[in-house]
From TrEMBL:
It comes from Pseudodesulfovibrio hydrargyri. The active site is at H189. Gene3D superfamilies: Chloramphenicol acetyltransferase-like domain. PANTHER family: CHLORAMPHENICOL ACETYLTRANSFERASE (PTHR38474:SF2), SLR0299 PROTEIN (PTHR38474). Keywords: Acyltransferase, Transferase. It comes from the Bacteria. Coiled coil: none annotated. SMART domains: CAT (SM01059). This is Chloramphenicol acetyltransferase.
Length: 217
């Protein structure tokens, strides 16, 4: 997959990037509760798995914004991938260990759903990275369905700044007849501002609300 190197000399966001990469090194997290009532009901009606559909939605939204596909290459150059694949956690209920499994992204729901479901069936062993040949162009999704959190933060310790987003789904909240899904969004401030996170959240909501347009009829 193509990695597009950004020319910092001409990039209009260079000042902000270098400030938050070198001077005030920080990532930040935002938690939002998203109404999934009709979406969840639709999935139940169709007999589809919630988590796989959620992975698809988040992968679509991430791939809609270059700020969510930015990374550093092996030479330390900033750039963005043409496309990124989801790497997501799945719990093996027998041994109570989770596996991180990657699935090739597809903009079309049906092939992605089939591919993701097959990967989970085959590789949910409890080994940390059971599926071989994990690509470099990935972003991370995890699920903690035991906790209906209102705040969530992951501390990444690395010599190289981790710029790609980390997304975490929490336990559903039943509130006044509606089903709310907590979603934690962690990004690096060097590449992603509040404006970008806001656009991302609105896109996730739009994909959920318009699910009849892309789910099977």
């Amino acid at each position: 997959m193509n990695f597009n190197v950004i020319d910092l000399a001409t990039w209009n966001r260079r000042e902000h990037f270098e400030h938050y990469l070198n001077n005030v090194r920080c990532s930040y997290s935002v938690v939002v509760n998203i109404d999934i009532t009709e979406f969840r009901n639709r999935l139940k009606l169709l007999g589809l798995k919630n988590y796989v559909a959620q992975i698809y939605i988040l992968a679509c939204a991430v791939n809609n914004f270059p700020e969510f596909r930015m990374s550093l290459d092996n030479e330390g150059r900033l750039g963005y991938w043409d496309m990124v694949n989801p790497l997501y956690t799945v719990l093996n209920r027998e041994n109570e260990f989770f596996s991180s499994i990657w699935t090739c992204y597809d903009r079309s729901f049906a092939p992605f759903y089939d591919r993701c479901t097959a990967d989970i069936t085959q590789f949910c062993t409890g080994a940390l990275f059971p599926k071989p040949d994990c690509p470099t162009n990935i972003f991370t999704i995890s699920s903690v369905p035991w906790i209906d959190f209102s705040a969530f933060n992951i501390n990444v310790f690395s010599d190289t700044p981790y710029l790609l987003p980390i997304l975490t789904i929490g336990k559903y909240i039943e509130e006044r007849g509606r089903t709310m899904m907590p979603l934690a969004i962690q990004v690096h401030h060097a590449v992603c501002d509040g404006l970008h996170v806001g656009k991302f959240i609105e896109n996730v909501k739009s994909l959920i609300n318009d699910c009849k347009q892309w789910l099977p009829q």
